[in-house]
């Protein structure tokens, strides 16, 4: 199956107004959306939580010029294809988080298929959802169980944790750790699972005990007891208490790592990892799925049994989840964040300029990709040039903050001029084919973006060009020969 080339297209994307989003102009999602839509009035009390850039049916991007769904445009570019829609395997998002989102986990592909079969209402997708978060501002999250020694330290500093996790279960966990049982050992993971299950079920069985224990736990915090907690975790505890009083999830910072990312830092976790976003703004890349199993700290559906089953009970330090930035030698404007996952890779494009001089010589090429990508400009304005076929001059495209473009596979793009002190953009791509969502029940988007009528310049594409980066050659190609559109799940199995 061959994929024909297309053109660079400006997109219209969905905003999600989830309650945990930052309100009005306090939200980068709102400001960025308004930058791309000068007529948009930002609602002062409206939460602007997420901007979705992808083809997922819960918030599909459309081509601005034609209002066609991006998935249809992609499908038309795939030769010998009968499917009406072809999806990208990722959703790139901008997120603005006011307070804690639910404590949650995402299933593996196998687990997702099972859950979807059992309960399609709560698990609408049959696909997995690895997640990457790149901090735009100071960005806080809970991610992964703490090292075993820290959990023990907190159990000892806060006896409430032992009570809520079960005295017998907690004692067994502490004894194993004291005997030197490795945290990689299935014995210790089983002991943690027992503690975790007991604690989650306490919310159902003895909610008044949860409330009583939380009261004494907070009293201890107020008295200055810290255990393995850092001072920065104290405000997180108070915020959780305020938003989710009596919720057993308020104990989570005692056994889950509290990560604080500075702008430019990036973390990744695949399926089976317990996590919760706390505050700040980020670029998020996720698998093209909406499957979430929630544990606590949410008014939404909580599936304790599935959650207890799905977790991998890995205990480790936060640096395990960090994605190192990689400067691409031939592309000085580009920093790559490539997690151990085929669903997405993130490129940061950063150029500073003063008058005629720029931090990188212009024009500067973006890495040519044999797969489709989406780019969002978050700061500044610049001229992009898309290579054309034959002897025609490259097509010029002026783009600025708030603009979002789809770049088809094999479209060579460079930046020729920067008109602002800084140009900052993010580009997400993947060589995988996205999942087949055709059987999915469509959920109406919460907020439909309005469409503007001004068109972008038509851009012609260049003939096939081999990726210049050696590592890209090793990866599977998007939409090329021998890819079976309807066997995407099999392709995605075992990844991440
Ligand atoms: Zn998640």
UniProtKB/TrEMBL annotation:
One molecular function GO term is: zinc ion binding
So what EC number does this one have?
5.3.1.8
Name the SUPFAM superfamilies on file.
Answer: RmlC-like cupins
The pathway it acts in is: Nucleotide-sugar biosynthesis; GDP-alpha-D-mannose biosynthesis; alpha-D-mannose 1-phosphate from D-fructose 6-phosphate: step 1/2
Q: Which cofactor does it need?
A: Zn(2+)
Which keywords appear in this protein's UniProt record, sorted alphabetically?
Answer: Isomerase, Metal-binding, Zinc
Any GO CC annotation of this UniProt entry: cytosol
Tell me if Isomerase is a UniProt keyword of this record.
Answer: yes
Give the source's domain of life in one word.
Answer: Eukaryota
Task: Give every Phosphomannose isomerase type I catalytic domain span.
Answer: 8-147
Family to which this protein belongs: Belongs to the mannose-6-phosphate isomerase type 1 family.
NCBIfam families reported for this sequence: manA (TIGR00218)
Q: What is this protein called?
A: mannose-6-phosphate isomerase
